[in-house]
């Protein structure tokens, strides 16, 4: 996946495109490029660089690039290594330029045909075949829109595209299928981008293109055609986000800012969703009550960090709500033959709402006969939200750091709301619901308390500067929290980390434990605390170095080979949310000490809109 941005305006669009790219950099940062049309000479002027947007800016500093129409791109490489020649925009015969997010599956076949027709390739990307294909039709019809409409019929795969041509320098064609694309509405100017965040400095009015839509943009108007080629109207929506919602402020990294935003983010997740001691059904949608009445089981589909949230949801749904649940990695689910159970709520969990595997898994679940569906998501109007019957927005606000933090804890909070509304249809009494609701309302202040551990954890993380491996242990709903802690550490510090349910240690991973293997454990004061303590003894007996995040009342004390960070006491059900915080902080501080790129770790991207 990649980030694309484009503009047609009366002013120079280069600063708008560069700011848009900066705001989209979380989507990929292997290379970046920009092309504008110089209105006078009608020529395409392009600058591309390998690396981040700062490299592109450096490349631009020696040039006088100006133009009123342009497109730009930040890349996360799929086909072809990160390099200047593989960077977008791609140009065909100095007439057409294109940026693309997605994957073209039949690129090899098209490439062979195009070579036979005399087209030369300058990159190893799948994208270059699109620009050549458009050019072929452009030669025939002399109309960019018609050329794009025809070329897209020849493509298999996913795309969001922005295309410009020298024929008309105030004209841009955009299209989406399988990858996100929004149109920004300005006054006498129009824009495209992969995400609204890219355009917030210039507009707050957006059209969200639908699957198969093709749009033509001029300064004065936007015309949209659906997959059948019919002209259609799409609503203009006002974004509630402000441009500074994606600023880093005084924080050293976005990730740290987002960790510290968790208390406020959880407050937002809960806002207006509870009345008295009761969670409102309607927060899942107008007819949610009737839909939820029918539900007998839950199937959660998600990837990455969201999958870990789903695993916690699994524990909660079965233990609190008495509703059977399974949770599956979306990229696996989409290719297996699941046994369909009736009245199963399919819950997709996703920060972005654009993860290709999760979208495909939802489609597969629907095709197989599961349903209805619920999307728990952080991005309104995203593909998963639009595919779902019921929706619960997590309202974490934009998350820029590639390693997910506040998106995760707000997903957990949203899942607890779901657990409660389903639970009261099964075994949860009004009294138990009221108790859970008070726990939820206490969460923001408990998160604040946990955040105060940051200096102590920063000090502790010094001991992680030289390590190469780490083991994380947890039990029950804290096993997925241990997994999330391990994922955070490996994502941003590149320390190899694995998580195990603590009871599983003796069945293999104990062989790895020695004085060089730090073992990080989460030890809330729950029913299986004593079992966990025995597991920790097994580590100590083998000379392992233990770091334990333990409830104040758990009576696990620091001593030789064991460092304990005390966590303020918290009720069992909400403990997974609170124990996440110190693990995020540990990963963050360890990465800072190691000097890695915390917000944009190597090889990763925040939103994976390709398979
Ligand atoms: C990428 C991100 C992860 C994220 C995963 C799922 O791999 O780097 O942080 O957890 O996608 O993303 P989603 O938007 O569906 O939650």
Automatic annotation (TrEMBL):
It catalyses: D-fructose 6-phosphate + L-glutamine = D-glucosamine 6-phosphate + L-glutamate. The active site is at residues 2, 606. Residues 2-220 form the Glutamine amidotransferase type-2 domain. Signal peptide: none annotated. Residues 288-428, 460-601 form the SIS domain. PROSITE patterns: GATASE_TYPE_2 (PS51278), SIS (PS51464). Its main location: cytoplasm. CDD domains: GFAT, SIS_GlmS_GlmD_1, SIS_GlmS_GlmD_2. GO terms for biological process: amino sugar biosynthetic process; carbohydrate metabolic process; fructose 6-phosphate metabolic process; protein N-linked glycosylation; UDP-N-acetylglucosamine metabolic process. GO terms for cellular component: cytosol. Keywords: Aminotransferase, Cytoplasm, Glutamine amidotransferase, Repeat, Transferase. One of its GO terms (molecular function) is carbohydrate derivative binding. It is found in: Cytoplasm. It holds the Pfam family GATase_6. It is an enzyme of class 2 (transferase). Its EC number is 2.6.1.16. PANTHER family: GLUCOSAMINE--FRUCTOSE-6-PHOSPHATE AMINOTRANSFERASE, ISOMERIZING, GLUTAMINE--FRUCTOSE-6-PHOSPHATE TRANSAMINASE (ISOMERIZING). Catalyzes the first step in hexosamine metabolism, converting fructose-6P into glucosamine-6P using glutamine as a nitrogen source. Homodimer. This is Glutamine--fructose-6-phosphate aminotransferase [isomerizing]. The lineage of its organism: Bacteria, Pseudomonadati, Pseudomonadota, Gammaproteobacteria, Chromatiales. The gene is glmS.
